[in-house]
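Bumping my old thread because nobody answered last time. Still need a sequence for this structure:
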């Protein structure tokens, strides 16, 4: 299994251009959030019954997807897992806020998801290199960690 630094080095090869990096700082978190929101739109009444009512707003298929992703991050680095888990919890709160909008969650999150992917492909057009996930789908999970890695280094946190 590759180390986190090996993943970052390979991912970074197609993320050298400053404009592409800036686009990724916007679009990767939006895509991450939208995936959770889209999965949260799948009926999940059976799941909700397994937990206390106070957790009900946060229990849905988006949470299941997060837990599966957390396993991936945990295998790479406990510190990275904690960082991604913290961001994930913020996303879960964001999904509950999204429910207060007049549009259904799936519509608003699908709209943002499509816009963010358009941004990603524009960034890679500017970069002149294909997105990493076309080589290996695991890079879809590395993108958020790559950004988190920048934050950790800035804060002096070892991952």
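Sorry it took so long. Here it is:
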């Amino acid at each position: 299994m590759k180390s986190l630094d090996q993943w970052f080095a390979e991912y970074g090869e197609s993320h050298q251009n400053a404009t592409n990096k800036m686009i990724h700082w916007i679009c990767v978190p939006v895509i991450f959030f939208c995936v959770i929101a889209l999965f949260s739109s799948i009926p999940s009444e059976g799941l909700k019954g397994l937990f206390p009512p106070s957790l009900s707003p946060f229990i849905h298929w988006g949470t299941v997807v997060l837990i599966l992703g957390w396993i991936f991050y945990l295998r790479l680095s406990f510190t990275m897992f904690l960082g991604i888990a913290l961001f994930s919890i913020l996303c879960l709160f964001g999904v509950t806020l999204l429910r207060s909008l007049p549009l259904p969650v799936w519509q608003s999150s699908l709209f943002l998801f499509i816009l963010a992917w358009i941004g990603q492909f524009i960034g890679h057009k500017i970069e002149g290199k294909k997105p990493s996930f076309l080589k290996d789908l695991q890079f879809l999970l590395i993108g958020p960690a790559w950004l988190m890695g920048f934050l950790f280094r800035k804060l002096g946190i070892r991952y």
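The mean pLDDT is 95. Let me know if any region looks off to you.
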